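TA notes. Do not distribute before section.
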Amino acid sequence: MCPPTGHVRWIVVSLAQHERAELVLTMTAVGQSAPTLCGEWTARDLAAHLVVRDRRLDAAPGILLPFLAGYTEQVQKRVASRPFEDLISDIASGPPLWSPFKLLDPLVNAGEMFVHHEDLRRAHPGWQPRSLSVKMENTLWSAAGLVGRLAYRASPVGVTLRTSDGRTVTVKKGRGREVVLVGKPSELLLYVFGRSEVAVDFQGEQGDIDVVRALDRSF
């Protein structure tokens, strides 16, 4: 029997929403005690971080601003004490209607969701890079340039990002000394975000490469 006729409703899912859904599936599969690439954080700690970012506007600034980090840590610990299933539900539903992140989610959260999804995936031996859409890779490429400028702002050596297909962006100008990071946009974004479980090649003088590898990429 054919289904009833009527109007067809198209639901447009942004890249951020799609990656958020994929992250939730992985987080559910690995469980609350699973390790991550975020230091000593478990999956539960990472979930609490994402909930604070989406829903606690009073505490979210401390994620980036060191002088507010103490308060953010206190709030995150309280959030982390909630049932893991509730945290996952909050992540899945995304920012609430009253949050500015509700409107900004498609613009600012694709990279965030991707990086933290990989924090879960790549904390386990035998991980493999995922095959991402061209649209997603292009979105992550834009994010890599922005994040790279912050990550390498204090570098004594010039740093350029180069994709496997030849696109380049200089994130720190140098005076005759330069290191080029080569890889897919997704891998480059992970590296400039401070992750080391990545598929990235380095080009330049070995001494300069050692300097760049040793830099603190946090911001």
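Switch to the second chain here.
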Amino acid sequence: MNSVCLIGRLTRDPDVRYGAESQTAVARFSIAIDRGRDRSGEKQTDFPNIVCFGKTAELVEKYVHKGRLVGIQGRIQTGSYVNKDGQKVYTTDVVADRVEFLDWGDRSEGGGGGGRDRSEEKDFDDVPAGFSKLTDDDIPF
């Protein structure tokens, strides 16, 4: 079985490219994951590379930026290529089937935790005329 579930913060904005022929979106980014402390008490962190395709990549491009907390579900994939110097380079990526956005707050506007300021939340029970209230099933991610 090859299954991975990770939670971490993006270390950089996603790099999104589109295939030349298929125009399929491909998003690449890495996340920081706390591993815990080693024997000397030093905090350790892992930085796995994540890649996702298609609609998932488009949503990542639109909604996810450096510092955001995300949950990743996917699989490990290894590969290799020959670099400019002729040396073989081995790669390990997490191919994400699912990316969950775990915080929505604007991290640039203080708060530090990335979450929403509960004191300024709006009541969304009132739906304007001509619109219908969304449910969780209506949201594509």
